[in-house]
Amino acid sequence: MRYLKLFILSLLLIAPAVSHSQQSLLSLGLWNVSALSGELKLGGLYGGGGINTYGIDNRLTETNYYGGIYAKMSSFVWNPNFLTVDIDGGYYPESRQDLYLVSPDLYNVINTKKLHLGATLFPRKMISLSGHINWDDSYDSRENFTDISTNSKSYGGSLSFRNKFVPLTMSYNESKWDSREVLTGRDFSYNQKNFEARMNKSFTTKDNNSWTYTHYDYTTRDYTIATLRNVSDNIMLQDGLFLDSARRSMFNSNILGTRQRGNDSFNQFRLNESMFYRLPYRLTLSAGYTYYYLQQFPDVLQQNTFNCLLGHQLFESLHSGILYEYNGALQSTYNEINNKVGLELNYIKKTLADGLLNIQYSYYRIAENRTSTDVQLVIQNEMYVLSDRVFLKRPYVDQNSFQLKDSTGTIVYQPGLDYTLTLIGSFLELQRIPGGLIPDNGKVYAFYSATQPGSYSYNINQNDFLFNYSLFRGLLDVYYKTYRTDFTQVHRAENLLLDYLTDEVVGGSVKYRSATLGAEYDNYQSSLVPYTMMRYFFSWQGRYQNRLVFAINANYRDYKIPTETEHRQYGDLNGMASYSIDARSKLDLTVGYQSQQGQQINLDYFSARAKYSTIIRKLTCVVGADAYSRVYLETQKTNYTGIYIQIIKKFKY
């Protein structure tokens, strides 16, 4: 009894008394309800449509009924500064039925339940303690085939120690998730335990430092595999320091270490240091260094990255910079070094007629060098259509291992009689001998071994240029962009897909208030997938008398791809409108159309949605309709129309 009296006395000293002005919805002695809210929901959907796939007609009739109740209560015990308690939960049943003319009918029943509890002791004091426990449960009868029961539970808590010296926060959370197919017994489970501790400390007004420790314990189990478990410990140190009194120059540091044990074991360390410093004569210096270490049996990876950018601002118009980047990676099986140097220019100038001129240019030269052991590949049944001559797809082929067969594999064609092989550079050229056993335009199948180089090197040149000029505060806007990538000093890189690219884009637009109309031409010349494209676009958003809000967007693109006989044409038109009839009622409409034409991509898709919502005696009533029509390649046609109604009763005290 003496200890109980001391505990009650300490509470009286820690927590101030409740003032007489304190209001609560319901008081049950020490228990006081401060807020209560939630909603009741009831709705349904009825729809139908037709499906025609490769000439087979099918009809669909769909019904869907759903509802739910949700409530949330906030309360406190004795005093809001002593103990607060939050409780929320809900129940959501749903039933769905799909009736088909040809396909089997489908029925689906879903029940979802949840209950969440949370409490905080001394929420506004120097030391506070909180805890929570959550239950979630669902049952799904799916497509007449199986019933799935899913339940999850999580619980945990946190401790906060607020002070000016070293604020400390610690938290623990455990989550369990289980899903089981009732009829088959197949199940999947997941269990996660997390612990986190965080401290923050500033030694001066110019620095901020934080230390974080986390411990993760993951366990998963699937009916098809054994239980998997991984346990990891992580330590992170983050530091920030201003280097001058004006706080215009700063240094940041981020250090992370991870040790994980289990089915996926590894050790990881990352160091990231960066600095931004303002120099005299309007110069700025940005520099960064990153070290990354990963040990995962049997491999070890070490990576060093350094970058430096020296910038200069000339008056208010011209910003220039030179940069250098180094990236070196050393792994158990390879060593890769990349060096990058570059120049950046950006010129912005205001002109007459409220115009703005922007010119940007950048040049980068990248040297990539990789050293590794070669890889031996064994190729089987590689098909070629042989009329005259073709190159084999892979370089460095062993000619002694080469064999050429027919589709059955029984006829082995003979070199010198049916075909010849000629070495051109690093590739072999395969040529059919007229009069041999290989028919003209016949399919042949190659078997061979090839050595793929693990070591290679090349240089990349990248040029990027932009010219943009706008007049009358953006009323008229024109631009030209070009980008070029090429490769020089290429060594043993035949097996890589190097994209020699030149891309030129020219376009313009006219903008009046919230409406924009424009066009753009793109000449994309790539060694992989080249094309030319013409694009037109239009957009308009607006508001009328604070009642009507609308938006319209349209795009059209025409692609010409050299490898295809037809142009690819893509078009889309989307619009929405929302009209407030009065303070309680609103009408929403959304319409969309999409079209694409071309080789084996023909599609027409139309969708529309309308919704009317109003509030009647504190009941939110919603009535809506959905419709869509889809035609793909003239062989797959689908149309659907549905209406739905929803009633929601919200309450808040």
* Portion in beta strands: over 45%
Basic shape: globular
Mean pLDDT equals 88
Low-confidence stretches: 1-22
Number of helices: 1
Q: Please identify the oligomeric state.
A: single chain
Main β-sheet, in a few words? 28 strands, antiparallel, barrel
Find the count of extended strands (DSSP E, 2+ residues).
36
Q: First CA to last CA: what distance?
A: 40 Å
How many whole angstroms does the radius of gyration measure? 35 Å
Helix content: under 10%
Global structural class: mainly beta
What's the structural blueprint in terms of helices and strands?
Elements: H1 2-14, E1 26-28, E2 31-53, E3 56-77, E4 83-100, E5 106-121, E6 127-142, E7 146-161, E8 168-181, E9 187-201, E10 207-222, E11 225-242, E12 250-262, E13 266-279, E14 283-296, E15 299-314, E16 318-331, E17 334-351, E18 355-372, E19 375-386, E20 389-391, E21 403-405, E22 412-413, E23 419-424, E24 427-432, E25 442-452, E26 456-471, E27 476-491, E28 501-512, E29 515-526, E30 531-544, E31 548-560, E32 568-580, E33 586-597, E34 603-616, E35 619-632, E36 636-652
